[in-house]
Write a structure and sequence with these properties.
This protein is mainly alpha-helical. Helix content is about 80%, strand content about 0%. It is built from four helices and no strands. α1 packs antiparallel against α2 (about 35-55), α1 packs antiparallel against α4 (about 90-125) and α2 packs across α3 (about 65-85). The two termini are about 30 Å apart.
């Protein structure tokens, strides 16, 4: 995996970790930090698989549409499935919060990166 493909994956994994940190601090503050792995692993694995799927099709994962949206959809959908299969809950509130959080953060960093790239391109031309 090249650096061009690695950075978007790492950024998405930071988004997943932030979701897990928010969940831990809101619902399981007394638990050890190991609970983060329990919360994050389904979504982290799903994000990795989404990136591999797009890499296999030789698609970049840095664009918001359609690749970024695909990463969000796979991360959320497969992540929730894996979470349910592992015995973790799927409270309606969590379904909504996780969907919104992952969409805003995972698409948000892509949009900011795109704007920064455009500005840099216009500044040098």
């Amino acid at each position: 995996m090249t650096l061009r493909r690695l950075w978007p994956l790492l950024a998405d994994l930071v988004c997943v970790l932030a979701l897990a940190l928010g969940g831990k601090s809101s619902h399981e503050p007394g638990e050890s930090d190991w609970i983060l792995l329990t919360i994050a692993w389904p979504f982290a694995l799903a994000a990795v698989l989404a990136h591999l799927l797009l890499a296999r099709r030789d698609r970049t994962t840095q664009r918001v549409w359609p690749e970024g949206a695909t990463v969000v959809a796979v991360t959320y959908g497969l992540g929730m499935l894996l979470r349910a299969l592992s015995g973790r809950g799927l409270a309606p509130g969590f379904l909504v919060v996780a969907a919104l959080f992952l969409a805003v953060t995972m698409l948000g960093w892509r949009a900011v990166a795109r704007l920064a790239t455009r500005r840099r391109t216009h500044a040098t031309s």
